[in-house]
Amino acid sequence: MQNLVIRNSLFRHLKTALFAGVSALLLAGCQGGVLDPKGQVGVDEKHLIVVATLLMLIVVVPVIFMTLFFAWKYREGRTQEIYAPKWSHSTKIELVVWIIPIIIVAILGTITWRSTHALDPYKPLVHEKDHIVVEVVSLNWKWLFIYPEQGVASINELAFPTDVPVEFKITSDTTMNSFFIPQLGGQIYSMAGMETQLHLIANEAGTYDGYSANYSGEGFTGMQFKAIATPDEAGFDAWVNKLKQSSDTLSPATYAELAKPSENNPVQYFAHVSSGMFHHILHQFMHGSMPDMQHGEKAVVDAHRQHDMHAMSDEMTMETEK
Length: 322
Ligand SMILES: [Cu+2]
Prior knowledge:
The protein is of the alpha+beta class. It has helices spanning 2-30, 40-73, 91-118, 233-244, 252-258, 277-283, 296-305, 308-321, and strands at residues 132-139, 142-147, 152-155, 157-161, 166-172, 177-180, 187-190, 196-200, 206-212, 225-230, 249-250, 268-270, 272-273.
């Protein structure tokens, strides 16, 4: 009797714990993560995650069940029957253990092949509206967003209109990071001396969390930003105008200051950005040494002329892209 009571209360506790755990997991999935997408890329990725998981569960669930079942059925202490198999080969078992995985791998492979091409982060999104360009730079420990078309920049705050595709050009001034806005989908590494790309779109207006999916040292936890999808283009223009009210400008000299490590950086706006800043940041490591930023924009432009083979091929690529 005593035993039964203990067992019952233990069972009830387990049930409560399990229920709490499952609800926590479900809620975590519902709020702000990859399972709560607000953009088309994220929606497609969620679909892929769900389909792939279900397909794999077709194998995983029976295997877990059979492991427990066989362990119990053929336990040492069993008395009701003696197990004395006389076979060395079973065509039935062979067929099951080969054909089912082959079918699942074939389906998964096809889905993966298709979605890898469909969701290629470098592939511009097909949309009636023109995309806007944002240049992203990961710094120790903050995110710099440059809007080359609007001539403004910001730290740790990103904005774009809802339902307009955004082309991110991404690089790093420092160690590797990964640009990640879970609810919009995709993530792509930022690497010094390299430009990576990501195309995203927000289907719903809102403010989404963004951070790095790649640990980068001491101030990493504070290296977060808000991605604001404004309800319309007027809202985005208002945001740009807000940046234009700032007294700060982003020039090679102020950038040199900005690039110094700092933690938990507040949001900061730049009303003006020197032309070619992103290109300069991207290529600074190819000059053999840090270009003389202190001498201002002219020096940077001159430094660039000296590695024109590279710059020219870059510009040609940019031209052909247009
Ligand atoms: Cu360059």
